[in-house]
Every structure is written in C-alpha cells, then in structure tokens.
Amino acid sequence: MKVDVLLGLQWGDEGKGKAVDVLTPRYDVVARFQGGPNAGHTLEFEGQKYVLRSVPSGIFQGNKINIIGNGVVLDPALFKTEVETLEASGHDLKQKLHISKKAHLILPTHRLLDNAYETIKGDAKVGTTGKGIGPTYTDKISRNGVRVGDVFHDFNRKYARAKANHERILKSLNYSYDLTEFEKEWFEGIEYLKQFKLTDTEHEINSLIHAGNNILCEGAQGTMLDIDFGSYPFVTSSNTVCAGACTGLGIAPNRIGEVYGIFKAYCTRVGAGPFPTELLDETGDAICAKGNEFGSVTGRKRRCGWIDLVALKYSVMINGVTNLVMTKSDVLDELEVIKVCVAYNVNGKEIDYFPYDINARIEPVYVELPGWQASMTKMQSEDEFPAEFSAYLFFLEEQLGVPITIVSVGPDREQTIERYTGEEE
Ligand code: GDP
Ligand code: IMO
Ligand code: MG
C-alpha cells in the first residue's frame, strides 16, 4: 500500500501528463488534487496526442480508477467538452472517473470576474488562463462557493445567490457581458456531470488505501506557481505542492511515500512574472522552437530560459522530493554549451537560496557545461547516453541531492528511460 505524488517543480508544463501516464501501470488509482482547466496535460502514444485539463492522466492505462479530488475546481461546460472528445476517440470514462462532491464549481461569472480583474490590473496583470480559477478559489475560501455535491441540493437557489454576488461586482467594475450562451452550455454541463459517480472521494480513497491499493496523486501547475511558495502574486490560486495532495484528497500526511518531482532540462514560464534565467535571445528562441513551447490551453508562447537550480532546490525542499524526473533533454541536443544557474546575484550579493522577493533585480550566476550534440530521441537505455549528458545528470543530482530516476527524451510514452532500476526494492 502506498500513496505517491507526482508534481511539477518549475512554472508548470514540465511533462506531468506524460509522466503520470508512464507510471500509471504501477498504480490502481490516479487522483488529481488541485487546479482545474487551467491545466493542460499532454500525452502521446500510438501516434495519438491528447490534452487533458480536468481529467486525470491515468485514464488511458487500463481500467484504473481516476479521481477528481475535493481540491480541484471544475467547470462543467469544459468538463463535458473534454470528456465527450475523449469518448469520441473510443475511451469510455463514465465508470472509472469519480468526482468529489466537495470539489468547487467554476461558474460562468467566475470566468468573467477573472477577466475583469485582469483588465483592471493593467500592466500588473498575472496573465491568467482566463478560466475563472482565482475567483472560484476566492469564493471557496470566503465560504461563498458552490460545490459539485450541491447539484442535488437546492442547486438553483445556490447558483442564483452566487451569480447575484458576482454580478454586483461586475457592475461596480463597469464590465459588460452577455451570459446567455455561456450559461446554456454550463447548465448542459451540470446535467452531464450528474451521470458520473459523484462521491465523498475522501472516504473512497481511504478505503482503497486500507484495501491495499496503490495511489498516484497528480499535481497540476508547478511549485513556482504555488499560492504560498511560488512567485507571488504571479501564481495560481491553489497549493500545487505536495501538502496539497493531503488537503486536496483527504489523505493523511503520514501516508505519503515517494514524491516524484518533475522538471525540464531547461525552464519555461507562461504568463507574467519574474523569471530570473529567462533567455531573450536566439538561444531562447531556438529552445522555444525545438521544444514546441506553446501553451496547451491558451496557445500562448512560453518564455524559455536556462535551468534554475536555486529555484529547483527550493522546490525539492518544500515538496520532500524523493525521485526526480527530467523531461525534454532532447530539446537541448544541438547546443554546444548548456548553462546551469547555481546562484543569484542580488544587488551585488551572491545568494544560493530562493529569496523572499524574486521580483527584485536578480542576475543569475551560471556554470557552463558542454552540450552532448547528439540526438537522444531514439535512445532506449542510459548505456547509450553521451558522456556529456551523463555529466549533466550527475551535476544536477549532486546539486539537488536527489536521484534522477526517469529521463524523458521525447513526447511519446515510449521515449522514457528509467535509471537505478536494479537498485529498487
Ligand atoms: P504538463 O502540463 O506538465 O503535463 O506538460 P504539458 O503537456 O503542458 O507540456 C509538456 C509538452 O512537452 C507536451 O507537449 C508534451 O507532449 C511534451 N513533452 C513531454 N516530455 C517531452 C520530452 O521529453 N521531449 C519533448 N520533446 N517533448 C516532451
Ligand atoms: P499545467 O498543469 C503553466 C499560469 C498562468 C498564469 C498563472 C495564473 O499544464 O502545468 P490561473 O489561470 O491559474 O489563475 O493563472 O498560472 N498557469 C500555468 N502555467 N502550466 C499550467 O498548468 C498553468 N496553470 C496556470 O499562465 O501565469
Ligand atoms: Mg501543461
């Protein structure tokens, strides 16, 4: 019996969807614990590509139970579209997808509020995904939210009350809108949702643990977007860190076993906010082009930069990472030199810890390592790794103090190389 967690260590889009899909055969249950349709988790196998937003990434590997936990925020209209698309491609989800009654619903007016708040922030806008995430979590915390379980209890009154609150705010902001189409799709989504198993998933998940099942908790976004520990205020509105798996699913902290921390061999960020190692030059453009760094939800160009070990060490610490997963190393295949940020220079002072204010002027301090300049996409085992790549892995492991147990060398499920396999129990 074990509960493991897989989560992002950077600013999201590290390849969580692919990694969860690869690990799912070892588990009986896959559960999302936070976030909502701001996530876009991409999986590729057998020549097909899927982008998941609210549905956990364990749905393609056999008949595993997939849970959308209480920590998630759900937009019924987007959920309906997502599931219908998956069902059209031959994947039946109704029996294996279970949804927490305690998950909060994203209302049509939450999306409007998200956009209205961004507009009034002007230059200081966060660059949200526009999915209503912030306003929905705000209502949850201020005890004004509407939950999935409410669809069976006095729902219309609860909806109308929340909507009226939102409309008052929108009016005060002079925000003009037309809800008709939005609301129609949303109510169709509510009816659609009723066909799913809506349960107290905290009971279900604990019963499954007691019965000896293995659970994999899937994070969304990344540690640098965490509401408490990320680059505030340029963050999302949930706890993306490991502790979020406990509150977002009802799993006791002492149940958590392995923590898989996933990161790219470089770094990306989508939306506004500080990014110390950002590359605003041809190298950045080359990484963006080769890595196809465009948002899977919004299509926005992702900002690209060198790997940042100051931020990664912080993420490893906050999450108690036991295994590292490195993705997209193939994107760096052609580079002659690879830079690794090992410290920050802040106002002339060198620091190696993640500071309170990363919005301040930070000059990254780099170590340069030789590139491997060989294509890695077809490699099957670490015996084939070029010496320079092995040296890169070794350097990162030494700095981070955690083994890199999985290396991803391409988007496909098969392009995955495991290390230290002989040393597992
Ligand atoms: P997630 O949000 O963490 O699940 O990541 P996304 O799916 O948003 O972004 C990761 C992108 O990189 C997707 O398009 C994946 O198909 C792709 N990807 C994942 N691993 C690799 C890899 O090792 N190499 C390459 N080239 N692409 C990868
Ligand atoms: P996955 O799970 C990358 C970013 C947005 C914005 C900030 C707040 O695919 O890694 P929000 O809509 O959450 O209020 O936006 O967070 N963001 C993500 N960036 N990957 C994601 O998810 C993200 N989800 C939100 O761009 O900067
Ligand atoms: Mg993504």
TrEMBL record:
The lineage of its organism: unclassified sequences, metagenomes, organismal metagenomes. Its EC number is 6.3.4.4. This is Adenylosuccinate synthetase. The keyword Glycoprotein does not apply. It comes from termite gut metagenome. PANTHER family: ADENYLOSUCCINATE SYNTHETASE (PTHR11846:SF0). GO terms for cellular component: cytoplasm. SMART domains: Adenylsucc_synt (SM00788). The keyword Cytoplasm does not apply. GO terms for molecular function: adenylosuccinate synthase activity; GTP binding; metal ion binding. Homodimer. One of its GO terms (biological process) is 'de novo' AMP biosynthetic process. It is an enzyme of class 6 (ligase). Keywords: GTP-binding, Ligase, Magnesium, Metal-binding, Nucleotide-binding, Purine biosynthesis. Pfam families: Adenylsucc_synt. InterPro entries: Adenylosuccin_syn_GTP-bd, Adenylosuccin_syn_Lys_AS, Adenylosuccinate_synth_dom1, Adenylosuccinate_synth_dom2, Adenylosuccinate_synth_dom3, Adenylosuccinate_synthetase, P-loop_NTPase. Its cofactor is Mg(2+).
